[in-house]
Design brief:
Helix content: 40-55%
Shape: globular
Distance between the termini: 48 Å
Number of domains: 3
CATH topology of the largest domain: Rossmann fold
Largest sheet: 6 strands, parallel
Order of helices and strands: HEHEHEHHEHEHEHHHHH
Radius of gyration: 22 Å
Number of helices: 12
């Protein structure tokens, strides 16, 4: 671990070991080792025979956590929560007993969810955990994680202000959250990187952070034209689908000779809509024989 990661780990483990309770938020941009912290915490607590519940806001993120589930699945959070909803957990049920026995709850990608999800969970935990009293989440140690620069709650037809007011840090629970920051990009510490590759990753990471922090073309009023660096642009594209496929996968004529599955695992084209996904996939499949 880095010194930062060790400090975060020790603070959370101390709260678990001494049964202090507490709500923590592990805040860091992509590549700072948040998932590594969750995995290490889970292994440490489980090695003592204690229970850790790992959840995430999305199914994909939950696959990165040991024994991960979506938060909705694990805690029975309502689909459309509001100021008065509670989780679908019956007092005295197996699910309620599991939550009561858990020593640590980790929730990754928390900023994606509406604050009402966390507040519904808080109300339910106070109800089902004996001796929880008025403590947040009934006195459980809860670790949230994520990056507020990334996707905030998706609310259909909402304004910017409404979306911000639905985020976790607009909830009354945020006053009880202790923010633990990770700032070192772990990808730059890899021994497999050449100095040139490390420099490229560092520059790209800093550019992404500047976009996320609103520091591009300052001073600005929150709206600004973002200039994409030239090395990320495909400028000659009579057929855009063919151009991006060639850029990512190389000459289509050579694809039929490619038998290494790792070649395809390391490449992907990200699309904004499922319709675009279908178009790209149809084009790529047409290049393959059979």
């Amino acid at each position: 671990m880095t010194d930062e990661q060790k400090s975060v780990y020790l603070e959370i483990i101390d709260a678990v070991d001494n049964d202090k309770g507490g709500v923590f938020f592990v805040y860091g941009f992509g590549g700072t080792g948040k998932t590594f912290i969750y995995t290490t915490l889970s292994a440490s607590v489980r090695s003592r025979g204690s229970i850790v519940l790992n959840v995430a806001s999305s199914g994909i993120a939950s696959l990165l956590l040991p024994g991960g589930r979506t938060a909705h699945s694990r805690f029975g959070i309502p689909i459309n929560p509001d100021d008065f909803t509670v989780c679908n957990i019956e007092k005295g049920s197996n699910q309620a007993e599991l939550i009561e026995e858990a020593s640590l709850i980790i929730w990754d990608e928390a900023p994606m969810m509406s604050k009402h999800c966390f507040e519904s969970m808080d109300r339910s935990f106070k109800d089902i955990i004996k001796g929880g009293g008025n403590k947040p989440f009934g006195g459980k140690v809860v670790v949230f994680g994520g990056d507020f620069r990334q996707v905030l709650p998706v609310i259909h037809g909402a304004s910017r202000a409404e979306i911000c007011m639905a985020a976790l840090n607009a909830s009354y629970l945020w006053n009880h959250c202790k923010v633990l920051k990770l700032t070192k990009n772990m990808r730059l510490l890899s021994k497999d990187l050449s100095p040139i590759e490390a420099k490229d990753i560092k520059e790209f990471s800093e550019w992404i952070l500047a976009v996320g922090d609103g520091k591009i073309a300052q001073p600005n009023d929150g709206e600004v034209m973002i200039e994409i660096p030239k090395e990320f642009l495909i400028t000659n594209a009579d057929n855009p689908i063919e151009a991006i496929s060639r850029e990512v996968y190389g000459d289509p004529k050579l694809l039929k000779d490619e038998t290494d599955p790792v070649f395809f695992q390391q490449r992907a084209i990200l699309c904004p809509t499922n319709e675009d996904v279908g178009i790209v996939n149809d084009y790529m499949l047409d290049q393959l024989e059979g």
